[in-house]
Amino acid sequence: MAAFTIYVVEDDEWYRELLAHTLSLNPDFTVRKFSNATDFLKSLANCPDVVTLDYRLPDMEGNELLKRTRQLCPEAEVIIISEQDKIETAVELLTMGAYDYIVKTRDIRDRLLNTIQHIRNHSSLKRRVATLEQEVQKKYDFGTAIIGDSEPIKHIFKLLTKAVDSNITVTITGETGTGKELAAKAIHYNSNRAGHPFVAVNMGAIPAELIESELFGHEKGAFTGASFRRVGKFEEADKGTLFLDEIGEMDPNLQVKLLRVLQEKEIVRIGSNKPVAIDCRIIVATHRDLFKEVKEGRFREDLYYRLFGLTIEMPPLRNRDKDIILLAEYFVNQFSKNNGKPVPAIHPEAKKKLMSHNYPGNVRELRSVMELATVMSDGQQILADDINFRKNDELYEPPMEGLTLREHTFNIIKLYLKKHDDNIKEAARELDISYSTIYRILKKEE
Q1: What is the CB neighbour count within 10 angstroms for residue 355?
Q2: Are residues 264 and 306 in the same domain?
Q3: Are residues 29 and 102 located together in one domain of the fold?
Q4: Residues 279 and 161 in one domain
Q5: Tell me, what's the pLDDT at 136?
Q6: Count of domains observed in the chain
Q7: Domain containing 425: what range?
Q8: Which residues pair with 277 in a beta bridge?
Q9: Do residues 147 and 100 both lie within one domain?
Q10: 137 belongs to a structural domain
Q11: Mean confidence (pLDDT) of the chain
Q12: Any keyword Phosphoprotein (predicted)?
């Protein structure tokens, strides 16, 4: 840990030397001594980590000195050391912002050192959190999180900036693999809610009978198997952002409850009658045309208009020609560094092959292709033969023997789930089976 600066403010010379000596035994502590408030306040141009403050000094009362210390140096933690053991005085000073209140005794040493160690640990944690927040914010800087220099992406950057500058509900649309969740995170981590949680929920990947508990939580005993209280995603996202992915898959009955939550700004856990206030920004995403879903009766019109705010349509990769090679090189660089391998160059013929593909899987497909190409290359250069695209009809090629029918069925379901980003309803629709059948088959293979 870095050196820790402590100011000891005490007019009793013997006690001042006792405190200073006790603290100086730790080589990580830098200790300065003051006998009066005037000299101490003049020194606060350089803010210490901790101040031990005598409650009664000849030139200023403890309450006033604590107040001025907090004003001049809000980062410093203040420990009041006093001969008084009145609870009322201690409570008042703690309310004013003192970290601790310690009564003067000859055996103060252990209490003081323990308190300072707690402060030091907390300070270290705050620094780590601040560093992490800076790293996260840098990671989700628009130009870092979303790679591209094409006109469609420049337009997206403008819309993201508008989303960050307000608390408007945002709807992110676009094909699978275009980076909808990445855009949602970029909005959150560049907004004034960045220090609070970003909570993502894939509405198409959760069974209808569980989604209400997932979103709103439940009380112990609310239903069979509810052996403890569960906090829902709305409460998890308090002061932060709740990202509802694939909102178009939401069950109509739940749409009514979501509308009520958005209107009332409160939820009620299953098994409870007590409303819980919520404060989270809502960002939703879908690959569907929600207006068309409304017209065809699959999505509530009132909820649609409640969610209708700023719409950001993520462009498909086939409309971002200028970005394809930029993204390919980024993925190769990232994958190589993460695996401790040299970064291979992309041969011009390989670039031509990349530019000629239609990318039905969008950016996600390109990333997968480039990671495989990096592995297949000789480590120096990625050639055209290292670039391999799957054809649409290559989703599943069952072997002629060696697997049971159940194993074939399981593999097919897993592949269709992968194709649809674990969206069970979409996989069930394409396979023409119920999604309860998918759950049953997956459960049998666990």
Answers
A1: 11
A2: yes
A3: yes
A4: yes
A5: 46
A6: 4
A7: 393-444
A8: 266
A9: no
A10: no
A11: 84
A12: yes
Please tell me whether the overall predicted TM-score, pTM, comes out greater than 0.70 for this model.
no
Q: Letter for the amino acid at 175?
A: E
Which of 350-354, 369-373, 409-413 is predicted least confidently? 409-413
- The two three-digit tokens of residue 193, written as one number: 């809610």
Q: What is the pLDDT of residues 397-434, one digit of tens each?
A: 445 455 666 776 777 788 778 777 778 877 877 777 77
Please report which confidence band the pLDDT of residue 387 belongs to, taking 50, 70 and 90 as the band edges.
very high
What confidence tens digit (pLDDT) does each residue in 66-119 have? Answer: 989 988 888 888 999 988 777 778 888 888 888 888 888 767 888 888 888 888
- Token pair of 277 as six digits: 């206030």
The CA-atom distances, in angstroms, between 90 and each of 57, 62, 76, 83, 250 are: 17, 11, 19, 11, 54
CA atoms within 13 A on the CB side of 13: 0
Least confident of 54-58, 137-141, 284-288: 137-141
